[in-house]
Design goal:
Blueprint: H1 3-14, E1 19-20, H2 21-27, H3 32-48, E2 54-59, E3 62-67, H4 72-79, H5 83-86, H6 89-101, E4 104-105, H7 106-113, H8 118-126, E5 130-135, E6 143-147, H9 149-154, H10 173-176, H11 181-197
Antiparallel strand pairs: 1-3, 2-3, 4-6, 5-6
Helix pairs in contact: 6-8, 6-11
Amino acid sequence: MNLTATLESLLFVAGDEGITLDQLDELLTEGRTTIMRALQQFESDLKADHHRGLTLFQFGDHYKLVTKKAYAEIIKHYYEIPLTTNLSQASLETLAIIAYKQPITRVEIDEIRGVQSSGALQRLSLRRLIEEKGRKNAPGRPILYVTSPFFLDYFGLKQLNELPPLTQEKATTTELETADTADLFKAFEAQLKDKEEK
């Protein structure tokens, strides 16, 4: 396998939380020094390539793919498009899971949905519907996500307990933990439709 392509794949899947050199060293057989050189070369290549909209960003011991500053204005404009007509089902599902199970990590969301949620989390964050709320006391210290004050305002809620109940059988906190994605999305979709009709 091509090392650069492998790194790009892992960085893409890692999403906004990024991936550490230790994790890459554990996953790959090339050795730490070779991986570091490959990351540096990949960063240089991305910066120099005017046909690419992404660059490599290092924060602490993490690396992640981010969009280049030159495209900030068009990306901002994309996220200013009216909310109700442009949230994908993936974003709505992710938002529903966060709304009913917060605080929650990306990995936990991925496990519930069965697919990777980094893109949806980034879109929801840029639209100010969710925010980071510290880190979980677990290996890797993953980011915890919660809904934002803007989320409450947008959906006309004073507090989270005004969200539509899932079902009578799943009313307690313990039972909410086992609620499936279909129930979460159905209840949340009803709230969204109600908002659109007002």
